[in-house]
Design goal:
The chain is α+β, with helices and mostly antiparallel strands and 256 residues long. It folds into 2 domains: 1-45, no CATH class; 50-252, no CATH class. Helix content is 41%, strand content 20%. The structure holds zinc ion.
Length: 256
């Protein structure tokens, strides 16, 4: 874990953090390794690799009941297999879900999956632990300006990163798997999320670290990383779907 934290710090574009990471490398060097001091100062040469989650969305999921504040849900079918590589900005959608709204809860399961991976055609799941995830993600979302039209700009208030990295959903929710890239022969540590909840919290951490700006897709309503100012859609398919529906709307109104 110290290697990981120092790796996080090394990537922060802040001089103080750079100094801290050198110091912690040097400390680490003195205790554990026989790497020459100048090499230890450069770090271990092991980058954090891709964040990965493999799971399923459940388009056929349905709410079956409510106990107190929590909804139970079931599903049929095989679900839609997903392999997500790299952080996804729709963790912010989860931070905004109204947990009292059954349509919002089941809508998330249908579109992205069950955060804790319990749901299957033979096992029901519930939303009893969703609030704990939403609280962490709301804290993460405080690192961006709140506008829903146009760019939501990264601000990264002090302390948010530390709180997120301390969260058990992140700490206990990911495995670090050594990976050698076939092309470059470089070693990295892939971050393999054990649940969708851990994938979302780790996505938030990586987005916070990289200071990316975000925007809300004007077609599907998912948050996405705004790579070019003024981008309105999260994907080419949302752009195409939006242009098809606006053409249809114009035709229905007698406009060509
Ligand atoms: Zn979209």
């Amino acid at each position: 874990m110290p290697q990981l934290l120092s790796s996080f710090r090394q990537n922060m574009p802040n001089e103080q953090n750079k100094r801290n990471s050198y110091l912690s490398c040097a400390k680490f060097h003195a205790i554990r390794c026989d790497m020459p001091r100048n090499e230890a100062k450069r770090g271990y040469g092991m980058a954090l690799g891709e964040l990965i989650w493999t799971g399923r969305a459940w388009p056929a999921a349905e709410i079956v009941g409510r106990t107190g504040d929590d909804f139970s849900f079931k599903t049929s079918g095989k679900g839609r297999p997903l392999e997500l590589v790299g952080p996804a900005a729709w963790w912010r959608n989860f931070s905004e879900i109204d947990l009292d709204d059954p349509d919002a809860v089941i809508g998330f399961v249908r579109r992205h999956g069950d955060p804790f991976g319990t749901l299957s055609p033979t096992t029901q799941a519930d939303s009893s632990q969703w609030l704990a995830v939403a609280v962490v993600l709301k804290l993460a979302a405080s690192g961006w300006t709140r506008n829903r039209v146009g760019p939501s700009v990264a601000t990264r208030p002090h302390g948010v990163m530390q709180a997120l990295v301390a969260s058990p959903i992140f700490r206990d929710g990911v495995d670090y798997v050594p990976h050698v890239d076939g092309g470059s022969d470089q070693l990295s540590l892939r971050i393999v999320a054990k649940s969708l909840a851990a994938f979302m919290v780790t996505s938030a951490i990586l987005h916070l670290q990289s200071y990316v700006d975000m925007a809300l897709c004007q077609h599907c309503g998912d948050w996405f990383v705004e790579r070019r100012r003024g981008t309105q859609f999260c994907s080419a398919s949302c752009r195409a779907a939006s242009s098809t529906s606006s053409k249809k709307g114009r035709r229905n109104n007698g406009i060509r």
